[in-house]
Structure prediction request, 86 residues.
Amino acid sequence: MSKQGLPKLSKDLLKKGKHFILIRNPTDVLASFDKDVPPTILEIGLAALVTIYIELSDQGNPPTIIDAGELQRDPEVIFKFDQNVN
Prediction:
């Protein structure tokens, strides 16, 4: 979860890895958070997720974006697609 990012995670390590961002339908996210705490934009981590995407992209390593709903419906298609991404 983007809001649980590791503040001491090395930027060099981020440059070396291959990354992906798993996204969910915002309605589902809000519904799951609302069970425990009234959701805020900071609580759901959307701003942090955008920051992570921008940082990785600025380093020349843009992450693949995977929709959780599509992954649930057809994981084989998602994983075959991801293997072809450079």
In short: The mean pLDDT is 76.
